[in-house]
UniProtKB/TrEMBL annotation:
Domain of life: Bacteria
CDD domains on file: BY-kinase
Full protein name: non-specific protein-tyrosine kinase
Family: Belongs to the etk/wzc family. Belongs to the CpsD/CapB family.
Amino acid sequence: MRSLAEKEKDKSLKAFMANMLKHWYVFIVCFLVFIALAFVYLKRTTPQYEIKSTIMLKDEKGMSENKAVTSFANDNGLSFLLNPSENVMNEIKVLTSRRLAKEVVQQLKLNIVVATQNGLRVEEIYGDLPFDINIANAKTDSIKERQFELEFLDGNQIRVKNDVEDLDTKKLVKEKINTSQFDLLIQPLGDKIPVGNKYYVTVISENEAANRLLNNCSAELTDKTATTVNLQFYYPNARRGELILQTLMDRYILNNQDQKIRMADSALVFIDQRLESVAGELQGVELGLEKFRSSNQITDLTEQSKMLVGNASEYYNRLKDQEIQLKSIKNLETFVKDPANNRIPSSMNIQNASFQSSLQQYNALLLEYEKKKLSYTDSNPVLINLKNQIDAERSNLLQNIGTYKRELQVSSEGIGNLNKRFNNQIGQVPGKERQFVEFSRQQALKQQLYVYLLQKREEANIARNANVQSARIVDFAKSSNSPVKPLPIIIYMMGGILGLIIPFSFLNAKELLRTKVNSESDIGKYTDIEVIGKISHNSQDNQLVIGNNQPNSIVSEGFRSLRANLYYALQSRPSNVVMVTSTIKGEGKTFMTVNLGKALSLTGKKVVFVELDLRKPKLASSLGLSENIIGFTDVVQNRVSLKDAIVPCDDNCYLLAAGTYSDNPSELLLDERVEGIFKELRENYDYIIVDSPPVGLVSDALIIKQYVEMTVYVVRHNYTKKEQFDFINELRDKNKLSEMYLVVNDVNFRDPGYFAYGYGYGYDYEDQGGRKWLRKKNK
């Protein structure tokens, strides 16, 4: 068994499809109209031919034929002149550039199109024109599109018409034709003038013509690994289209060749300028090096530097020796001056012969004195004589030491000066060497640059005169044998599809914008309250449709179905009090009350109508009774008894009318006597049908809710708005009304939204023993 959701989904889909099928005639009419439009379009539209060609952007074969030239250029950095390295995609952009297209437009005068009338369409002619046409004396910066009608007349005259400029003039052939934007010059190409023929000349700006050319032209690589490009072009005239595409390729190749020559010429001019500048710079560097050598007496800077370092080292060693000698002699002088010191060590490194001799004699006297002292006393003349000799020798020794010390000091100062001079000269060597290296580097650099520029000048001359093309044409422009656009089958298919889509979209949009309920699926979308009955449209003026002269009408059968469903809904209730209400007036609440009560009375049950729409009572008049009769308000206010207020209106049908008009109906409904009224009615009648006011306008129905067991809520086909179901759902969810069931009134069973009813009567039976069982909601 399928779920309820699946069934509802099927119903919605079937209702939608049925709605589309109901308007089948709209689809047929739209389909035929669009097919006719497609036919007219094909007759009026100018056919387009497809022109194709192939171009190779890098001619490897051509370069291999000039292998020696290209190899020389590649090895020496000038390959960009012979073997362009630009990205292929960039070259495709150049092929489809606006500048190149404009050159083609100017060369072929594509901004002027001449056509003739051929049936419903105007077709361009080319190649066999009897005249030539040119534009002169442009009077505006940007020419706007103009179409002129030319007609050749007798007497060598021509008539020119243009509706936009209000131009209609006759001129002699070859005579200038003045317009607001330019002048037209028409020149016959033969002796015979085509008298009586009409031509249509369209003039546009060159920029616009270039844009149109590019819009109809495309270029793409034949393969990701190849450099060949397929060009595709659409044009209404096959011969002229081939010429246009061929001219486009020729202009591209010619422009590339011119660009290569311009690049080579520019390179030559630059190289010659640099050669002249570098030659002057090289001469200046060489003169500077020559002056530097002469002023610094430099022959071989390396050898001269070695000699300076050697001399400086030698004098440095000599200076150290002198310092040692000077230090030793100072120590000796200090030692000799001390009387406590006797013998002087002979091992001291004193490099002076006279000093060494005096020192030896002094030590010999001291030794002799010490020997004699062992044999003589201090007062012995021998010892005294030796002591005097020793003192005299010591004085002489000190004098020699002082002389030698001064000699050492003078000698050390001289050696130090020489050493300092050599060190200064050594310190100047890096600077001179640096200057020398700088001069040498500049000389080498300028010389290399000069040789390099001479080489590049030869390369540029070779490249300029080498006939190596960066692109070549593989397939020349060729048009298709027949027009490729528009394709009749595609146009007819599009027309047929539009003929179906447009009415479908219109009907679907109409359905989406619809605000009122007109199908069973609408109710299922906006509420899950059970639909207890569906009542067909009542085409009669009489409100009472049950028991009239059409007992088997669809409306009557709808109320019988409602009666059966109501019976099963009330069979478990303690009493059978039913309130009939709606959201707003006009939804058929009173009509539903009258006929539902009548349908119940036909089963032999006693039915009483309680008219509680106290503000606008209509139930009495619908039953054929006077509206000004006593009723509910009179009973509540104790004017009459309930028994006297109830009046019979038909077999088993009775009415408790609204009664005398009251200014406070809500307060009357809240009166405690109302409960007694309903209690007495339950005791005397099988069914109590309450006609309440619309719940969406006043709150009376919410007050009546406490006295009833079930609420029949009326919605009307093509009248109740979808947004009202929010209010209805709120009433149910907040339990503001007793057990609620929906009844759909004024249903058009011919509408595809109510397809579920079989046998033409609107029954909604399930196969369960021939009876309809009302599905209860889970509370």
